[in-house]
Amino acid sequence: MRNYLFLLVFVLIGGSIAAQEVAMSASEISAFKQKVIATAKSTNSIKADFVQFKHLDFLANDVQTSGKMVFKAPNLVKWEYTNPYQYSVIFKEDKLLINDGGTKSKVDIGNSNLFKKLNELIVNSVKGNMFNDADFRVSFYKVSKHYKAVFVPKDKKIANYIASFELLFNKDDAQVHEVKMIEPSKDFTRIIFSNRVLNSKVNDSVFSN
Amino acid sequence: MIRFLVISLSLVFSLTSCSLKTTEGLRPIGLNENGKLNKEVENLYFSNPEIDYVYKAKIKVYKKNFGGILIVKKTGPKNHRVVFTTEFGSKLLDFQFDGDKFTKNFVVEDLDKKFIINILRDDFKLLITEKSDILKAFSSEVHNVFKAQSEERFNYYFFEKGTGKLQKIVNTTKRKEKVEVNFTSTEKEIADIISIKHNNFKLTIDLEKFKKK
Known about the structure:
Chain A is an alpha+beta fold. Chain A has helices spanning about 1-20, 25-40, 115-125, 155-160; strands at about 20-25, 45-55, 65-70, 75-85, 85-90, 95-100, 105-110, 135-145, 145-155, 165-170, 175-180, 190-200. The longest helix of chain A has 19 residues, at about 1-20. In chain A, about 25% of the residues are buried. In chain B, strands 1, 2, 3, 4, 5, 6, 7, 8, 9, 10, 11, 12, 13 and 14 form a 14-stranded antiparallel sheet that branches. Chain B starts with a helix and ends with a strand. Chain A: It comes from Aequorivita xiaoshiensis.
């Protein structure tokens, strides 16, 4: 009897999880991809606020930081943390321009394939258009208000750092709402965007240190 | 001639044995003077298991600068986790201290070199070590100073008189200062700013505690 009860509970819980997250059908996936690609194509610039949560299993609370992100097509990105400290990184060609509370530095990533890949991920995840990346296995799900794309690295070296990479897209405008990077240890970083402004004028001077 | 030798030798001996700048001008005091002194010296800056200790870190090695976030948590009576991440949250290293046992849970490939790991392990160990037996006690106008053994080296703990705040730890060999850690704190058991400076090579680690919102 007890076993049946367990089974019933299991089925109910399992059922509710399945109801929250459903794999997308092939036709849904292709329609969704087209929408994301079309949106990315028509997007010349993005400005957004973000909140970042770093989850470590041994902490009482996630480490929370926040700031602003600016993207300008085709591949300029600036991440600027403003709380609780001032720190910005500009992704520009093969360089990272860093301003750490007034201490400026430049990092050349041209020689590091791994670093290049990680940066490409960050840049592409802002646009959402990274489905054709041959380095990942991608699967798609529907979750209440969002579509979810899960990227699992094929490359073992990348897999040492990232177990998977999840992007949540708004169902209505196909914009990236949330980025989640899960480490092999299951600890993760979540970045949630808000106050998104599309296609406003962004000067190139934003991307210099 | 023999007399000259004895004098010069004893002079050399006394000069080398007293060459630690750390203890210059300090007055040695008896451990049981007035019965006031404990036998153990305490560093309480990472001692509260309820607190997630989170710091913005700036590391300067020779002329290169690195940034990141340092997270320290007391996970048991003699246990600490120390994790260093980039600003984006990617883990660079994850250390675990269980009493005297040290475990390297994770280190990013570029940093995984023995001498780097050893330096960082020793620096973090110096920060989180809560209690040490006092070997000697000193006093100056502004500080009470306690000397403690740290494996084959020594740590000198400087406490501000009056407030009782730990302001400085100096890690030394018998003759030379190796590492100096300075603390700035508004509350007694919370270090707002920590600066770790190495004397034998150009490495400084500056830590600033995340402000409460």
